[in-house]
C-alpha cells in the first residue's frame, strides 16, 4: 500500500485551521502542521479499535466519518469493534495481557493504570495536542498520565446530571429543584407518594452506578483513601452516606440493585421513573421518538445536589484512548489519533455527540453545542469539574483496581438491600480496598 503522505499532511493542517479562534490562527495552524507531520503511517498499516457502544447516534456517525476521512487521506483501514460498556474493560485487559487483539482501546476511568507496561508511550502526541489546543483539563489528564509519561490520550468526560420530569416535580409540591441533599430526599419521598418515583443504579453499571456511588460518598465527606493512599473508607462520613443512601433507596422503583447502564434510561423513557441521573443521551433518545414527545418536552436537567460536605463533588464518566504495545503499526495508530484531534474533526465529533461528550482539551470549550440547548448546561463543565475516582489519593493501579472491582458500588448495594448491615458493608469494602492499597 502506498501512503499519500502529502495529501494527509495538507488535509489535516487545513482541517485544524478551520475551527480556531481569531488571534491565534497562525500559531495554531503551524502547530497543527507540526503535529500532523510527527507520525508517518507504516507501509501496509491497518488498525483495529475497540470502543464502547455509543448511546448517541450522532456521536458514532461523526467518529466513523472522521475515521473514513483518515482512511481516505492515508490509505490505512481502521476496523472498529464495539462492546457494551461493561465488556470493554475485561476485553481490553485480556488483549493487553495476552498481547493480541485490538491495536487501540477507548477505555474507562483509570483502566490504563491496570496495565501501563502494555501500552505505547504517547507523550510526544499528548504534549503536541496539548500545546496545539490550549492544554488538557487537569482531571482528564490525570487519567492518562503516569508521572511525566502519557500512557493514554484523554478523550472526553461523559457528563452526568440529574434528569427529571418537570411536571412531576411540580405535582409533588416543588416549584424548584432542591439544591441540597436534604431537600432532594424530600423531593424523592414526595414523588414516590405521587406514583412518580426516582431510580438510581445500585448494580454494576460502569458509568451510572459508579457516578451515583461516588457522589453518595463524597457528598457526605467520605473517601476511599486519604492523600497518602491509606485506606479511609471506615469513617462516620461513610456511615452517614450509607444511611442517606438507604433512605433514598426506599423511594426508588424496585429492582435498581440489578440495573446496568441501560436500565435507568429504559425505565425513565417507559414512564416507570421520573427522576434519575444520566448523560444527555436520555434526553435525545426521547426527542427522536414521536411517541415520547411529551416526555422529551417535560425533561429538565440539573447538577447533583450538594451534601453536608458543602460543595459540588461529582464523578463523571471519563474515557481515554490507548495504543497497545502489540500494535504492529504504532506510527499509524498515533497518526490516526492525531487526525481525530484536529480542530474540524474534534469539533464535528463534539457537535455530533450533542453534549454527550465533554472535551478533554480546553481549546474546544467554546464549541457551540454547549449553548445550543438549556438541557446541555449541567454537562458543559464536566471536564473541568470532575473529581478523579481515586480521591483523595493519587490515581494508579490501586485506584484502577478498586474501580474495576466495583467496591463502592457493592458497598452501597449491600447496605441498602439489607444484605449486610452498614457496618458490615463498610468493613467488607475496607478489606477489599486494602487488597489494592498495599
From TrEMBL:
Keyword Signal on entry: yes
InterPro entries associated with the record: Bact_solute-bd_prot1, SBP, TAT_signal
One Pfam family in the UniProt entry: SBP_bac_8
Family: Belongs to the bacterial solute-binding protein 1 family.
KW Transport (keyword) present: yes
Native organism: Nitratireductor rhodophyticola
Organism ancestry: Bacteria, Pseudomonadati, Pseudomonadota, Alphaproteobacteria, Hyphomicrobiales
Major subcellular site: periplasm
Signal sequence extent: 1-22
Official protein name in the record: ABC transporter substrate-binding protein
Annotated compartments: Periplasm
Keywords: Periplasm, Plasmid, Signal, Transport
Amino acid at each position: 500500500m502506498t501512503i499519500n503522505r502529502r495529501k494527509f499532511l495538507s488535509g489535516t493542517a487545513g482541517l485544524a485551521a478551520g475551527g480556531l479562534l481569531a488571534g491565534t490562527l497562525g500559531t495554531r495552524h503551524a502547530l497543527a502542521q507540526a503535529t500532523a507531520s510527527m507520525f508517518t503511517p507504516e507501509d501496509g498499516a491497518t488498525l483495529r479499535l475497540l470502543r464502547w457502544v455509543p448511546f448517541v447516534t450522532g456521536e458514532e456517525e461523526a467518529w466513523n466519518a472522521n475515521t473514513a476521512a483518515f482512511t481516505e487521506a492515508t490509505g490505512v483501514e481502521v476496523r472498529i469493534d464495539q462492546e457494551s460498556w461493561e465488556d470493554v474493560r475485561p476485553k481490553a485487559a485480556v488483549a493487553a495481557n495476552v498481547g493480541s487483539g485490538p491495536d487501540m482501546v477507548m477505555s474507562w476511568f483509570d483502566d490504563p493504570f491496570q496495565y501501563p507496561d502494555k501500552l505505547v508511550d504517547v507523550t510526544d502526541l499528548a504534549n503536541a495536542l496539548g500545546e496545539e489546543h490550549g492544554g488538557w483539563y487537569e482531571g482528564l489528564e490525570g487519567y492518562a498520565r503516569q508521572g511525566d509519561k502519557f500512557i493514554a490520550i484523554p478523550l472526553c468526560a461523559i457528563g452526568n446530571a440529574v434528569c427529571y420530569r418537570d411536571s412531576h416535580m411540580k405535582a409533588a409540591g416543588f416549584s424548584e429543584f432542591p439544591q441540597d441533599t436534604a431537600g432532594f430526599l424530600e423531593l424523592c419521598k414526595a414523588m414516590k407518594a405521587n406514583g412518580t418515583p426516582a431510580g438510581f443504579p445500585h448494580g454494576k453499571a460502569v458509568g451510572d452506578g459508579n457516578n451515583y456511588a461516588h457522589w453518595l460518598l463524597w457528598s457526605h465527606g467520605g473517601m476511599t483513601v486519604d492523600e497518602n493512599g491509606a485506606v479511609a473508607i471506615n469513617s462516620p462520613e461513610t456511615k452517614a452516606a450509607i444511611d442517606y443512601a438507604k433512605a433514598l433507596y426506599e423511594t426508588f422503583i424496585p429492582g435498581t440493585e440489578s440495573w446496568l447502564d441501560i436500565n435507568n434510561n429504559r425505565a425513565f423513557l417507559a414512564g416507570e421513573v421520573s427522576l434519575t441521573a444520566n448523560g444527555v443521551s436520555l434526553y435525545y433518545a426521547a426527542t427522536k421518538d414521536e411517541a415520547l414527545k411529551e416526555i422529551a418536552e417535560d425533561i429538565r436537567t440539573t447538577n447533583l445536589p450538594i451534601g453536608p460536605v458543602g460543595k459540588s463533588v461529582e464523578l463523571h464518566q471519563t474515557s481515554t484512548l490507548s495504543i497497545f504495545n502489540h500494535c504492529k503499526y504504532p506510527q499509524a495508530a498515533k497518526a490516526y489519533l492525531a487526525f481525530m484531534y484536529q480542530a474540524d474533526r474534534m469539533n464535528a465529533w463534539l457537535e455530533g455527540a450533542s453534549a454527550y461528550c465533554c472535551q478533554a482539551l480546553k481549546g474546544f470549550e467554546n464549541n457551540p453545542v454547549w449553548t445550543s440547548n438549556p438541557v446541555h448546561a449541567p454537562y458543559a463543565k464536566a471536564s473541568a469539574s470532575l473529581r478523579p475516582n481515586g480521591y483523595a489519593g493519587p490515581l494508579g493501579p490501586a485506584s484502577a483496581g478498586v474501580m474495576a472491582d466495583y467496591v463502592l458500588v457493592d458497598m452501597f448495594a449491600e447496605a441498602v438491600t439489607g444484605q449486610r448491615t452498614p457496618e458490615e458493608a463498610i468493613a467488607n469494602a475496607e478489606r477489599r480496598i486494602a487488597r489494592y492499597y498495599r
